[in-house]
């Protein structure tokens, strides 16, 4: 057996086939329930607050516990995924958040529910990291942005589905039914994903060449359908280090900085604004029913935004798409606090939600996993996610303070400041990764050696 299998070049030259669609579907349905479980906080917390089961500070604790759990899950999955493989890791985290979700439905008080949310968060944070990174390692470079953005659509579709489900399920069966639905969904996906293969890029990176070669032959046979395939690109001239210290070297440290800042910003946008919308509406005097209806309308912008991100990132490039969508979110963020008309409010909110979810697709799904070599991809992505989740542990308390003292304008001022920071950091330090092979990006010796154009 050869000392290398050249997995990356062989995968990149494949035509899109039933193999890619099957991998996309098996990872995607798990990611959908990950998103559903994350976003049920918006409807559940509005209901628990309205019924007296929780208070506003307890709701902040619930959201904060989610961040702590997701931070721990993001960090641990990076080491598990690079050490034991992608397949083991995505199955393990499904069991964690699915089981904890079912138990949460029977929580006797808010304290127990918060503790179970912490456990759920561990599985949710792990799924987010390993799902996107695994698909990154299967999809050809020429369509990687489109397919990873499509994966983000799976995730963010959990937002309107959770909002719509909550609108009908919570009044009939209480908020507890929402956790049961998420838990059962996770268990079903765990069973279906037993057939998902290991990443051949990971197998090669850990020296399991026979397994990588056997798997590649199966993939090529299915993708080619008996037709000859083009010759793969030449092998890279060097192998990236598996040493964790390489993340702090001159080649990867700027990428770690960009990834960490980007995920701090997008996590704060999601969990400092989007998740709190039903609570904001209730505290502003709307009924719980009207609150859910407004939130549901605005949430439709989530899959639309993620779809736009998927369709534009390969064509426009990662950096321009991030800059444009951030700028649009800033504009609508300025407008939103001054709108009180009951018709315009959800419409402007929708217009604000769309570019935020373009960023969700770009940052979570596409850009961050691309930045790092296979040898350290999950650990690097996990650490960036750890910073992102960790920095937002205090976000719920900051949001409550801002809203209490300055209203929605205070909250939006924070969001706009973070978006400006994101644009500056990505344009100044970010590498353009669109349409480049993962191996080409991995072997860049310093920031900017790959096309860093706008």
What is the count of distinct domains?
1
| CATH-defined topology | Growth Hormone, Chain: A
How much strand? under 5%
Low-confidence sequence ranges: 445-454
Approximate shape:
globular
Number-wise, the strands total: 0
Secondary-structure topology with pairs:
Layout: H1 7-12, H2 18-51, H3 56-84, H4 86-104, H5 110-136, H6 144-156, H7 158-173, H8 176-192, H9 200-205, H10 209-224, H11 253-274, H12 277-283, H13 288-299, H14 301-316, H15 318-335, H16 344-370, H17 377-391, H18 395-429, H19 438-442
Helix pairs in contact: 2-3, 2-5, 2-6, 2-7, 2-8, 2-12, 3-4, 3-5, 3-17, 3-18, 4-5, 4-8, 5-16, 5-17, 6-14, 6-16, 7-13, 11-16, 11-17, 11-18, 12-13, 13-16, 14-15, 14-16, 15-16, 15-18
Give the structure's gist in a few sentences.
The chain has a single domain, classed as Growth Hormone, Chain: A (Up-down Bundle), CATH 1.20.1250.20. It has 19 helices and no strands.
Features:
mainly alpha, Growth Hormone, Chain: A, 454 residues, globular, 0% strand, single chain
Task: Describe this protein's structure.
Helices cover 75% and strands 0% of the residues. The longest helix is centred in the C-terminal third of the chain and has 35 residues, at 395-429. It has a single domain (9-225, 246-442), classed as Growth Hormone, Chain: A, CATH 1.20.1250.20. The chain is mostly helical and 454 residues long. It has helices spanning 7-12, 18-51, 56-84, 86-104, 110-136, 144-156, 158-173, 176-192, 200-205, 209-224, 253-274, 277-283, 288-299, 301-316, 318-335, 344-370, 377-391, 395-429, 438-442.
């Amino acid at each position: 057996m050869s000392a290398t299998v050249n997995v990356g070049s062989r995968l990149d030259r494949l035509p899109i086939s039933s193999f890619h669609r099957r991998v996309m579907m098996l990872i995607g349905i798990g990611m959908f329930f990950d998103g559903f479980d994350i976003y049920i906080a918006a409807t559940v917390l509005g209901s628990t607050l309205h019924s007296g089961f929780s208070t506003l500070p307890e709701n902040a604790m619930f959201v904060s516990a989610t961040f702590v759990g997701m931070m721990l899950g993001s960090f641990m999955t990076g080491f598990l995924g690079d050490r034991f493989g992608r397949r083991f890791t995505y199955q393990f985290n499904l069991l964690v958040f699915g089981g904890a979700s079912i138990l949460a439905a029977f929580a006797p008080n808010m304290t127990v529910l918060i503790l179970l949310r912490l456990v759920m968060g561990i599985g949710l944070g792990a799924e987010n990291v390993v799902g996107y990174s695994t698909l990154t390692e299967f999809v050809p470079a020429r369509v990687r942005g489109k397919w990873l953005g499509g994966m983000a659509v799976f995730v963010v579709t959990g937002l309107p589905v959770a909002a719509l489900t909550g609108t009908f399920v919570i009044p009939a069966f209480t908020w507890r039914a929402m956790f049961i639905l998420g838990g059962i969904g996770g268990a079903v996906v765990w069973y279906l994903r037993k057939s998902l293969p290991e990443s051949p890029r990971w197998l090669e990176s850990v020296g399991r060449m026979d397994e990588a070669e056997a798997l590649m032959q199966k993939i090529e046979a299915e993708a080619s359908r008996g037709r000859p395939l083009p010759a793969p690109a030449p092998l890279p001239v060097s192998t990236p280090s598996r040493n964790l210290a390489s993340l702090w070297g001159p080649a990867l440290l700027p990428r770690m900085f960009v990834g960490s800042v980007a995920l701090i910003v997008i996590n704060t946008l999601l969990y400092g604004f989007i998740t709190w919308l039903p609570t904001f509406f209730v505290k502003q005097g709307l009924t719980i029913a009207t609150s859910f209806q407004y939130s549901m309308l605005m949430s439709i912008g989530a899959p639309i935004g993620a779809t736009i991100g998927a369709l534009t990132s390969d064509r426009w490039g990662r950096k321009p798409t991030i800059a444009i969508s951030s700028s649009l979110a800033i504009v609508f963020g300025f407008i939103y606090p001054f709108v009180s008309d009951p018709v315009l409010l959800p419409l402007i909110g929708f217009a604000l939600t769309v570019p935020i979810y373009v960023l969700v697709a770009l940052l979570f799904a596409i850009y961050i996993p691309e930045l790092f070599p296979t040898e350290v991809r999950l650990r690097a992505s996990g650490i960036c996610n750890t910073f992102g989740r960790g920095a937002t542990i205090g976000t719920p308390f900051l949001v409550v303070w801002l809203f209490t003292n300055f209203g929605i304008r205070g909250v939006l001022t924070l969001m706009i400041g973070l978006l400006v920071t994101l644009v500056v950091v990505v344009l100044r330090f970010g590498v353009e990764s669109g349409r480049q092979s993962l191996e080409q990006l991995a072997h860049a010796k310093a920031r900017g050696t790959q096309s860093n154009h706008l």
